[in-house]
Amino acid sequence: MNIGIDKIGVEFSDKYIDIKELAIARGVEVEKYTKGIGQMEMSFTSSNQDIVTLAIKATKDILTDEDKQSIDLIIFGTESSIDESKAASIYIKNYLGINSFCKCIEIKQACFGATAGLDYAKAHIALNPNSKVLVIAADIAKYGKNTGGEVTQGTGAISMLVSKDPSMIIFNNDEVSYTEDVMDFWRPTYSKYSIVDGKFSVEKYLELLSKSYSEYRRKNDIDFKAICLHVPYTKMAYKGLNSITNDENILNEFESSVVYNKRVGNIYTASLYLSLISLILNSKNIKAGDKIGMFSYGSGAVSEFFSVTLANDFRNSLNKEYIENKLNGRKKYSIEDYEKIFFEDIILDENGNIEFEKTENDVYLKEIHNHKRIYYVER
């Protein structure tokens, strides 16, 4: 029985800035950001958007009524959680009307959470072949104004429906994981922003890539048509790819795999899967039956190298025009406005209440009432 991804949905927020303008505002050479980091644009959010609104928008257009009845497990991978106790997946089940005989959980391990979710989903389908699992990766990467990591921020969500006999992606059951206790990137519960040792984090990313790939290669064939990697920023993934292969055909596919990452930024748990979407929609060389290498990394640190096979209907399962309309339909903001919007603090009154400005968006955080989040979702 083949198990894999049958449907994929995406969301990038409706706001972005131009990385060139950010460089100018920060007094940095433009090419340091556009070539040295490799980014072009960056999606960001306002206070009435969070991982739940992103996830709902990524998911609502891909599920049929039949899907909603068949889903019995929802897994939300994120490191941008809105609650220390309640899983964000419960909101998704509620607002999208998914079957209540359903298990809803949230997974945290830095950028690795969604990959862990897919591993869990695969095992669940193996035991329950007629069920479907919704795996969501959604994050808001935020480091603060005028910080070293500011240029690598981003916002987005990827929603993946896992089932038997998938139309898009088949899991090959060949994953190799590697874990090491390091402090390269972390965010204590008392900290508003993440703490990162940038140089050390790059070193660990490359080291764990090397170790997991070497072990994968020892156990499996490496007849890849392309390799997708976790993309904190484009040049880091490019450096990683060059560290494990000199195959010109694979290296030539890299640009196809980061077209959208360059425009969205780092979306943590979703970055690897955005790269896979980018490859599928922009490569002219891949075909059904091709094997794609995948490298997932979450600081702290956990890595996994695995592969997937493109299913027969992989091209028809994603709508390029729809996805690019979402990207091109975002509104561009000045750096001054981005600073006001993205870094605005949510300040509750003494009773734990706040109402947010009504927007034309079809999904947004409407209010927080008695510390409870209430969303508007257009039916």
Automatic annotation (TrEMBL):
The keyword Transferase applies. Residues 2-164 form the Hydroxymethylglutaryl-coenzyme A synthase N-terminal domain. (3S)-3-hydroxy-3-methylglutaryl-CoA binds at residues 143, 239, 266. GO terms for biological process: acetyl-CoA metabolic process. GO terms for molecular function: hydroxymethylglutaryl-CoA synthase activity. Residues 175-245, 254-342 form the Hydroxymethylglutaryl-coenzyme A synthase C-terminal domain. Substrate binds at residue 148. Pfam families: HMG_CoA_synt_C, HMG_CoA_synt_N. Transmembrane segments: none annotated. The active site is at 79 (proton donor/acceptor), 111 (acyl-thioester intermediate), 230 (proton donor/acceptor). Keywords: Acyltransferase, Transferase. Its EC number is 2.3.3.10. The keyword Cytoplasm does not apply. NCBIfam families: HMG-CoA-S_prok. PANTHER family: 3-HYDROXY-3-METHYLGLUTARYL COENZYME A SYNTHASE, HYDROXYMETHYLGLUTARYL-COA SYNTHASE. Belongs to the thiolase-like superfamily. HMG-CoA synthase family. This is Hydroxymethylglutaryl-CoA synthase. It comes from Streptobacillus felis.
